[in-house]
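so my prof wants the structure for this chain in the tokens format not the other one, which i didnt know existed until like an hour ago. anyway here's the sequence
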Amino acid sequence: MIGNMIAGTYGASGTPVAKATGGTIVYSSPYYYHTFTSNGTFTPLVSLTCDFLVVAGGGGGSYGGAGAGGLRSTVTATGGGGSLESQLSLSATGYSVVIGGGGAKGSAGNSYQGQNGGDSSISSITSTGGGGSGYTAPQVGGSGAGAGSNVSGANGTANQGYAGGSGISGGVASGGGGGAGQIGGAGNATGNIGGNGGNGVQITAFATPTSTGANSGYYAGGGGGGYENYLSQGGLGGLGGGGTGTRDTPASAGVTNTGGGGAGSYASGADFSNGGSGIVIVRYVA
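here's what i got, hopefully its the right format
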């Protein structure tokens, strides 16, 4: 778990020297980990075979919960229930690393349509930004957005994430955004409860220092759906940084560097929420 690792000491007796530069570098035998939370360059000093986690930015919330950023991984599990990705074979040259930003929340100026998150990438691997939510037009993304009204949630991207949940007629309860590990929940007509965001994927080998406790190592959770009735409740955010839906208070944003989807709300556009930015982690045997 990265949160418990000690930074490598370069050139110290008995400690292997890192074989690459770029990102925040941490050594935990037998691996070196390079974590990127903003754009950068990963530069192997020799040819390397690398594991990776690439998570895109989550979508922006509107009435429904937004979809989580797409997730691709060579370790434990990848998004959408797909097969694990193949390791990267990298030569001694620089590789650009792009971290997708969280999608902007819906606003009056864009017809209350949340925007898709940005793609994250390294070398040949690109994860697709999460789908932005809307009232009747949830967007396809790495994971799909939940619907604000009586339409189906949007689809996710194969091997990256799941679809969002459906909304209830009249917009009384919105669907939750899809997560990397689970479909977003549908709005509940019985209690007018917003659908929960789909859970992300837990990869403890790539847990960060800010990811602790039972939820350690989860990434790419969908945003919870909003609700209209004062006596009801919003959908919970999916494990992995998804925001929790509300009615007349600001919905919680997707968590930074998890790819979590922004949550839905109903009172006004000001209460919608942005998606969380993505992350890229590379590891190799020291």
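also thought this was worth mentioning. The longest strand covers residues 48-55.
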